[in-house]
Amino acid sequence: MPERLPPLTALRAFEAAARHMSFAAAAQELNVTPAALSFQIRNLEEHLGQPLFRRLNRAVELTPAGHALAPGCSEGFARLASAWRAARQRQETPVLTVTAGPAFTAKWLSPRLFEFAQCHPEIELRFTANFRMMDFERDEVDVAIRYRLAAEPSLWSMDLMDEWLSPMMVPALAARFPTPESLLDAPLLSEDSTNFLSPRPDWAAWFRASGIAQDTVVATRFNQADHAIDAALAGAGVVLTRSSIAAHALAAGRLVAPFPIALGTPARYRFVCAKGTEDDPRIAAYRSWLVGEIRTQTSALPDKQVIQVSDMV
Question: Are the CB atoms for 108 and 116 separated by under 8 Å?
Answer without folding.
Answer: no
